[in-house]
TrEMBL record:
Residues 11-176 form the PucR-like N-terminal domain. The lineage of its organism: Bacteria, Bacillati, Actinomycetota, Actinomycetes, Pseudonocardiales. This is Helix-turn-helix domain-containing protein. InterPro entries: CdaR-like_regulators, PucR-like_N, PucR_C-HTH_dom, PucR_C-HTH_sf. Residues 328-386 form the PucR C-terminal helix-turn-helix domain. Signal peptide: none annotated.
Length: 397
């Protein structure tokens, strides 16, 4: 961390002969800073033993010695001690202290150092201009060292977050693996990332066009890097608000609730639902819940049996032209759904009641007594609904 020292730098205004005099002050100033930090910052109030005591004492002492070196020679680079302060920042992260606490310690250290330097300046009768330069140099030096420590702190935090994210993503892979991963393996990895195993989960399929920011903690597991991004959300955790904020115009489908062992099934249906939304078969909603469309998903799930049911139940319509077929199928479904006469069906379809009566007569001729049989009517309604869904499903695939 070398710097070009210009003529206006405070370091060039400090007499180099001050350095030996300042060096003698280092032990006393170190003790003052250390004592005040322990008194005023609770996170540092513990006994100064072991690695903790060595790191903080060594850091303060080296900061003051490096300051003296820069007074002696303004061109003295920070590189020889830069890694030490980055390491100090990394240590603060691993000790669990916050970045605010670290910066507070540096600010307090700067104030104590400047107070001591002021007293020193009065003792050796420094001029006002030299005192001003000394103050500027103190705070510039502390800012440089604090920046190195913050750099180390943030690097350690980024590394830890990346590692945690990778392990959480691996946990999600194991939960969804087929054949199933042994429960003990999942339990051990869940404990390693502090994730509580839920009894039931929803899997959420995401549109790659609107992928949210990663979750690195909390109950939601995420895999956002592949071509089919998805989330695992324990039942009881509301993710709608989070999804609404981060999807950026994309779509999501929340799969049916499932036991953790069946999570892959929930994801399969969520992905199927997302495709059906894009195909126009299911409603185009930003966040679609499969639980609200289970019947529709079931009707399009088994193509072979679905098509067999359609062929069997709607065979009387086969002799008709496509246009006639569509009109009578629409009228029959409306009649079955409303269980009303011509006026109710007409209101449902937006056509004249007389037109409905004509079509109903045609349907009676085609289907006969089946229209009076409750079981047959149920099959007809299921077949008509399945056909409507299947048309959208078949159009794309």
């Amino acid at each position: 961390m070398n710097r070009l020292i210009d003529a206006g730098s405070p370091w060039t205004k400090l007499p180099s002969e001050l350095a030996p005099l300042m060096r003698a002050q280092v032990p006393g100033v170190t003790a003052q800073i250390l004592s005040r930090i322990q008194q005023e910052i609770p996170e540092y109030s513990r006994p100064l033993d072991g690695h903790f005591g060595h790191a903080i004492t060594n850091g303060i002492e080296h900061a003051l010695i490096q300051f003296v070196h820069r007074v002696a020679d303004p061109q003295t680079p920070l590189d020889p001690c830069a890694e030490m302060y980055r390491l100090l920042g990394r240590g603060e992260f691993h000790e669990g202290r916050s970045l605010d606490t670290l910066q507070a310690a540096y600010r307090l250290g700067a104030r104590i150092a400047w107070r001591s330097m002021s007293e020193f300046g009065e003792q050796v009768q420094l001029s006002t201009s030299t005192m001003r330069a000394l103050g500027e140099a103190v705070f510039e030096h502390i800012d440089d060292l604090a920046a190195l420590a913050v750099e180390g702190y943030l690097a350690a935090k980024a590394k830890a977050s990346g590692s945690l994210e990778r392990r959480r993503r691996r946990l999600l892979e194991l939960v969804l693996a087929e054949p199933p991963t042994p429960k003990q393996v999942i339990t051990e990895l869940a404990a390693a990332v502090s994730w509580t195993l839920p009894e039931q989960v929803h899997l959420v399929a995401l549109d790659p066009a609107g992928v949210p920011e990663p979750w690195v903690d909390g109950p939601i597991l995420a895999d956002l890097e592949g071509p089919a991004p998805h989330l695992l959300v324990p039942v009881g955790v509301d993710c709608d608000e989070q999804l609404g904020e981060v999807l950026r115009g994309g779509r999501a489908a929340i799969g049916p609730a499932a036991a953790l062992d069946d999570a892959a099934e929930s994801l399969r249906w969520a992905r199927r639902a997302l495709r059906l939304v894009k195909d126009g078969v299911l409603p185009d909603e930003p966040v679609l819940r499969c639980s609200e469309h289970l019947a529709s998903l079931w009707l399009v799930s088994e193509a072979f049996l679905r098509d067999a049911l359609i062929r069997k139940c709607l065979a009387p319509l086969d002799p008709l032209t496509p246009k006639q077929w569509e009109r009578l199928a629409e009228t029959l479904l409306a009649w079955l759904e409303t269980r009303s006469g011509a006026p109710g069906v007409a209101a449902r379809l937006g056509i004249h009641p007389q037109t409905v009566r004509y079509r109903l007569h045609q349907l009676e001729d085609l289907f006969g007594e089946r229209l009076n049989d409750p079981g047959a009517r149920f099959e007809l309604e299921v077949a008509l609904r399945a056909d409507r869904l299947a048309r959208g499903d078949k159009d794309t695939g």
